[in-house]
Write a structure and sequence with these properties.
single chain; 253 residues; four-stranded mixed beta sheet; two-stranded antiparallel ribbon
Amino acid sequence: MQTIDANDFGNKLSAAMANMSSEDYIERNQMLLANLDKVETLARDMKLEVLADYPELMKWKGMVSSLQCFTFNNKLAEDERVRKLESFIGNRLARFIKRFLAPAEDNLLIRYVLWRKHFVGDDEFRKWVFRQLILRGYIYVVKMEKRNAYYVRGIQCKVRDNVTRIDRMGRERYCFYNVCVLQAFELEQPNDISYLATFENIPELPDYLEQTYMATDNEGGKHSAQHPKITDKELRKLKAMWDGLRERGELNF
């Protein structure tokens, strides 16, 4: 087996991120490589049918991702094989979580409450939207000592890395990538938080949604989610929905 330098910066950094000593980090990954056939079989055969199966495969995804960093940083012969296994697990997870994404109309309502622009006079409509999202099971709470945080699920947003590219105008931009996890996005608007605090029946954020994100613009940090957009056509649809509710008197609650 190839000798691995425990003092290599890449190994030390990866070990620190895994909260392990360099020696333990190397030993663990060498053990995985020595049993790579078994790792591949277990990862490929692991059941993924219901949400209860999801967290375990996510753990395997994290373990294989760490292993791929190890094989890449140390230029090991198994790197391509491990990379393909990581990609296989990621694709499997990505297909699975599509089952839990919101249908088109709910998707638009979710993006609306994460959107940072409001059209004039939409306070009551916004409350109506939140009531619908609560009833449809998209809103969760994380209870804390000083305040509660509220999250919405049901959509996917690309997540930022630290890698940059140069756009067509010559400006440096961070790269955003697709994800293979169930995402929950924190709601930031103070008025929204105050309104949601009036509800007593909002469920707490479940363990399978521990992948939480702050939806930010391009200036956000690594792992921040790309802020969802709303097109002019979708904005007209929202306004038409608002007008219809107002005309029918369904905003009076």
